[in-house]
């Protein structure tokens, strides 16, 4: 594995002055050579040396912008990386590869469209772009088809690994992030009623686990994953209606359970209060009738029509 080697090259201002001196030295040398009577062949040789040196030296200048880097190669051998912004001069025979250190993000399921150029003129016809993310269709742990996508925020931290260990590090990040997301979705259920970790109920924990899984896959590419968040999560269209009915049924059952618990508590409180205050003494049969009536009134989902007893206590 190629390890990054950061270098701090020479400032480009002094070589720039030297190059300007070589450029201006040709006419000055011509005047000086005429004064000291140097032959024509000597003048041409000096001019050729000066201007060839000047021409070659111009290829050594490098202006590195903030959050940009240059990877330097000498005839295929890695020599180092310039990661600090500034104006530099390096060996003109170095080949320089530009790489961005800026924070980037993308949504899984998106497709990168490459830059298109005119074959004859080289003019850029269409810039490099990325389509909108399309949710991935995958089965969760229980076998239910779901749609899921995520947003991944990342940046390059090891320039040598990003360029030399993988073929295309941007495509590598996209593919591995998609694979990690699919793998995560198959390990957890969409929803869980017994407190088990689920994709919908434990969003923070799931996103943390997703970030860790993606980072583990991208270690060899010199990439740091800053954040990974689920941006879309839903049942697939073919089972969405059935799952919605199931969720509605679960909500109704949970609501009814809560209503019954409250109604039983209110009935118990009414009986205890009647007995404590000595308002009326009911036998077991009348208590059962009272409990039945109260539960019907309290648990019914419609308005009840009470029957008022205008006779004796029991008739």
Mean pLDDT score, rounded?
81
What can be said about the biggest beta sheet?
A: 4 strands, antiparallel
Order of H and E elements: EHHEEEEEEEEEEEEHHHEHH
Rg calc: 39 Å
Q: In what range is the share of β-strand residues?
A: 15-25%
Q: CATH H-level name of the largest domain... which superfamily? A: Band 7 domain
What is the CATH third-level topology name of the largest domain? Tetrahydropterin Synthase, Chain A
Extract low-pLDDT stretches: none
Percent helix: 40-55%
Query: Which descriptor suits the 3D outline?
Result: rod-shaped
Number of domains: 3
User: What's the tally of helices?
Assistant: 7
Distance between the termini: 95 Å
Question: What's the level 1 CATH class of the largest domain?
Answer: Alpha Beta
Any idea what the CATH architecture of the largest domain is? 2-Layer Sandwich
Instruction: Tell me the number of strands.
Output: 14
Structural class assignment:
alpha+beta
Q: Can you offer a commentary on this structure?
A:
- The longest helix is centred in the last third of the chain and has 41 residues.
- This protein has three domains: 90 residues, no CATH class; 132 residues, Tetrahydropterin Synthase, Chain A, CATH 3.30.479; 60 residues.
- The strands form five sheets. Strands 7, 12, 13 and 14 form a four-stranded antiparallel sheet that branches. A three-stranded antiparallel sheet has the order 1-5-2, covered by helices on one side.
- By secondary structure, it is α+β, with helices and mostly antiparallel strands.
- A hairpin with a 5-residue loop joins strand 12 and strand 13.
- The model has no long low-confidence stretch (mean pLDDT 81).
- The protein starts with 9 loop residues before the first strand and ends in a 16-residue tail after the last helix.
- Helix 1 runs antiparallel to helix 2.
- The chain is built from seven helices and 14 strands.
């Amino acid at each position: 594995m190629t390890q990054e080697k950061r270098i701090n090259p020479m400032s480009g201002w002094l070589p720039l002055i030297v190059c300007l001196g070589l450029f201006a030295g040709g006419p000055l040398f011509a005047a000086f050579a005429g004064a000291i009577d140097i032959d024509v062949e000597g003048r041409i040789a000096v001019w050729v040396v000066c201007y060839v040196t000047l021409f070659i030296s111009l290829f050594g200048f490098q202006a590195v912008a903030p959050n940009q880097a240059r990877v330097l190669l000498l005839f295929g051998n890695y020599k180092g990386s310039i990661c600090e912004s500034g104006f530099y001069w390096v060996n003109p025979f170095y080949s320089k590869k530009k790489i961005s250190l800026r924070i980037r993000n993308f949504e899984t399921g998106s497709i990168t469209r490459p830059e298109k150029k005119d074959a004859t003129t080289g003019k850029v016809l269409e810039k490099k772009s990325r389509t909108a993310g399309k949710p991935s269709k995958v089965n969760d742990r229980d076998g239910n088809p779901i749609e899921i996508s995520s947003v991944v925020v990342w940046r390059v931290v090891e320039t040598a690994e990003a360029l030399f260990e993988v073929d295309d590090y941007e495509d590598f990040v996209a593919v591995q992030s998609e694979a990690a997301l699919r793998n995560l979705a198959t390990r957890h259920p969409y929803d869980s009623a017994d407190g088990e970790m689920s994709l919908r109920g434990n969003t923070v924990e799931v996103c943390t686990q997703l970030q860790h899984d993606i980072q583990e896959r991208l270690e060899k590419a010199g990439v740091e994953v800053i954040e990974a968040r689920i941006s879309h999560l839903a049942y697939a269209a073919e089972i969405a209606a059935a799952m919605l009915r199931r969720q509605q049924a679960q909500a109704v059952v949970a609501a009814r359970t809560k209503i019954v618990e409250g109604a039983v508590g209110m009935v118990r409180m009414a009986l205890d209060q009647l007995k404590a205050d000595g308002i009326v003494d009911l036998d077991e049969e009348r208590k059962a009738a009272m409990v039945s009536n109260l539960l019907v009134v309290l648990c019914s989902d419609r308005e009840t029509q009470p029957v008022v007893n205008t006779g004796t206590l029991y008739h």
